[in-house]
Design brief:
Strand content: under 5%
Structural class: mainly alpha
Helix content: 55-70%
Number of helices: 5
Shape: elongated
Order of helices and strands: HHHHH
Length: 90
């Protein structure tokens, strides 16, 4: 895997984990970018390299989860979408 892609994945995963941990004790509105990047162990400038704000991060995380879901559960054929294995997994 490309090193740059791998680094981005580590950054995104760190931000996701940090956000989830911070949400255990604070509301989304009370979580600052400073708290978030400190918990994630990344520089503030790194956050802003990829995201405009916290909402942008959340949109990205939702889209990423949906992409992973689609890759895992998307039927490859029309017939497959009606198979009980596929239906039960979804």
């Amino acid at each position: 895997m490309n090193k740059r892609i791998e680094e981005k994945q580590i950054i995104f995963e760190s931000l996701k984990e940090a956000l989830l941990l911070l949400l255990e004790n604070d509301s989304f509105a009370k979580i600052s970018i400073t708290k978030l990047v400190k918990r994630a162990g990344i520089a503030r400038s790194t956050f802003y390299k990829y995201f405009n704000d916290k909402e942008d991060l959340v949109r990205f995380l939702i889209q990423d989860e949906m992409r992973e879901f689609d890759e895992q559960f998307h039927p490859k054929t029309i017939e497959e979408q009606y198979e009980s294995k596929y239906i039960n997994e979804v």
